[in-house]
Amino acid sequence: MSNPNTLYANTFIDALIACGLRSVCIAPGSRHTALVLALARHRDEIDLYSHLDERSAAFFALGLALGSDEPAAIVCTSGSAAANFFPAIVEAHQSRVPLIALTADRPHELRHSGANQTIDQIKLYGDYVDWFVDAPLPAADPPAVALRHLSTLAARAFNTCKRKRGVVHINLPFRKPFEPSARADELVAIKNPVTTKFVEAHSKRESGLSALLADELLARPGIIYFGHGSCRSEAERAAITPWAERLSAITGYPIFAEFTSNMRRGCTIGAYESLIAANADRLSQAEVFIRFGSPPLAKNMQDFMHGNHLRYHIYCSRAGEWADDSHSVSHHLTVNPAKVSVDEWDGWNSAAPREQWPQQWQAAERIARQVIADQIMTGEYFDGAVLHDVVELMPAESALFVGNSLPIRHLDQFGMPREKPVFVYANRGASGIDGNVSTALGIGAARRGKPLVAVLGDVTLYHDLNGLLAIGRCGTPATIVLLNNGGGGIFHRLPARRFEPHFSDFFITAHGLDFRHAAALYDLEYILADDRAAFRAAFRDSVGGSVSRLIEVRTDAVDDLRRRNEIMAAARERLNAAF
After folding, report:
1. CA distances from 502 to 459, 499, 506 (A)
2. Which of 110, 108, 119 is nearest to 81 (CA)?
3. C-beta of residue 3 within 8 angstroms of C-beta of residue 177
4. Angle, nearest 10°, between helix axes 33-40 and 4-19?
5. What's the CA angle centered on 236, arms 234 and 240, to 5 degrees?
6. Cα separation of 114 and 43, whole Å?
7. Which pLDDT value is given to residue 150?
8. I need a surface site. Which of 100, 357, 409, 546 has the fewest CB within 10 A?
9. How far is Cα 113 from Cα 122, in angstroms, rounded to an integer?
10. Measuring CA to CA, which residue among 61, 293, 44 is closest to residue 161?
11. What is the reported pLDDT for 309?
12. Which residues contact 191 (CB under 8 A, 6 or more apart)?
């Protein structure tokens, strides 16, 4: 049986050296054996220095980093050995010298157990490091994403150390045995490892993306994806829209846009959840993924991003943050949407036709949109149809806040682009249901004089019911659309639904609340609208007015899921007939 320690250490060290690490100081011990042997495999490529004690090793590495102006690494076993790195780490932090500390550690079951030579190594160096990570424990037969995580962890560690000119501490736990087995296959760390490259723009008006668009990349099919948070103001949208459209023309890649990216416009692909459900193989042909904002909301887009078919996964980060739970980013750029200029594309020609790649996506998008519109017009009313109508009926320059769980997913799937787009907000940093009412009303106060609509689920509204006090207290009129499916409707999408009665008792959490009493408590007008005609009339009458209203639509989570599946099936049928 192969040793997972060897696989993990080789994967991590190989990526670290691929990023540019050239100097490592090693102190003696046992638990860091896998790291030492992984480094020894590269002794002809890098400089390895052996030291008898950790304190001297760390200060020697400090001198290497000072003299070369490049990151140096220090490696030690677990326990007090790691503590002896501390003085040099303090000096590196104070002097802004790039240093990478790799400390081996005991597995979790031995921590706080009284095991010999065991100390608490979590954030051992406190604020003297710029980044700390407690790496995962090596596992037998790990999934590919776990190994990709080790590669991107190494790339991020090296880049953070070099860019911030400070200290990065990676704590790596290992179980016995530490030595490799006789099997040769464990020495091969990972096939086609991801080594993320961090790309800097040449000027403040550029993204750095133009430097990556080599002929080899442009010869491959791809897509441009705008996730949540891509644009946070109308000014940012005005800046990035012509830049993005020109990028699409140069590459020949269609633009996919989540609704809360605030980039979903007439020419973008927005019905992709239905499109991919109809023909996932079409998307899998894409080899280039240029991504902005948060990771995808839709599961089938998440599955695409987690696939191994991408040759280039270019992530354009707003402020240098990492947002890649698939650990597949090949190139990381920092792009401020407010600063980009379409002038970056001066001299670039539009892409030559690539087997009608973008045209086929646009044609499929038109069919999917029509299917959605037809189904909502003629079928039973459900949560997704409410979001479709909200988007259609909102006045220009209005703000839409959408709650987490089901509402934001229904908006993304069934909200169609508008000629004059509304601006959409959501709490997607941690994606919780707490505080959504208060956040929405704060947005309304910041945009005083412009219509505010908040679409919230019943549990989300209940969670922040006291936030409704701000409507009168802070003078923030709002139209609140309540989608009441009796609690926990999103969980019907999970396999846990098969386990009754526990599913109903602990996941659905039915509440039986009558929200008209909440409306009365906070002096809101209350309207119950359980069909499409009633909702559209109530919404038109309310939105943009000076009187705040709570419009409740009572739905059934099981029926809503059925209607969603019916619409996706109808889209699949029409698309298969067309293509």
Report:
1. 19, 6, 6
2. 119
3. yes
4. 50
5. 120
6. 37
7. 95
8. 546
9. 15
10. 61
11. 79
12. none
Q: Contact at 8 Å (CB) between 476 and 470? A: yes
Measured between alpha carbons, how far is 219 from 205 in angstroms, rounded to an integer? Answer: 26
| Residue 490 backbone class (left: φ over 0; alpha: ψ -120 to 50; beta: rest) | alpha
The answer to whether residues 421 and 386 touch, using CB atoms and an 8 Å cutoff, is no
pLDDT tens string 425-477: 999 998 999 999 999 999 999 999 999 999 999 999 999 999 999 999 999 99
203: helix, coil or strand?
coil
Specify whether the CB–CB gap between 230 and 263 falls below 8 A.
Answer: yes
Which residues, 6+ apart, have CB-to-CB distance to 71 below 8 Å? 20, 21, 65, 98, 99, 100, 158, 161, 162
Which residues, 6 or more positions from 219, have their beta carbon under 8 angstroms from its beta carbon? none
Distance CA 532, CA 335 (A): 42
- pTM of the full predicted structure? 0.89
Beta strand extents in 516-578 (DSSP E only): 525-528, 549-554
> 74: which strand partners?
25, 101
Within 13 Å, how many C-alpha atoms sit on residue 558's CB side?
4
Measured CA to CA, the distance from residue 379 to residue 375 in angstroms comes to 5
pLDDT at 287: 93
Of 37, 56, 57, 40, give the one whose Cα is nearest residue 48.
40
Q: How far apart are the first and last CA of the chain?
A: 49
Contact of 458 with 431, CB cutoff 8 Å: no
Calpha distance 304→225 (Å, rounded): 12
**What contacts 32, CB < 8 A, 6 or more positions away?**
26, 75, 76, 77, 78, 102, 103, 104, 172, 174
Which letter does DSSP use for residue 269 in this model? Answer: B
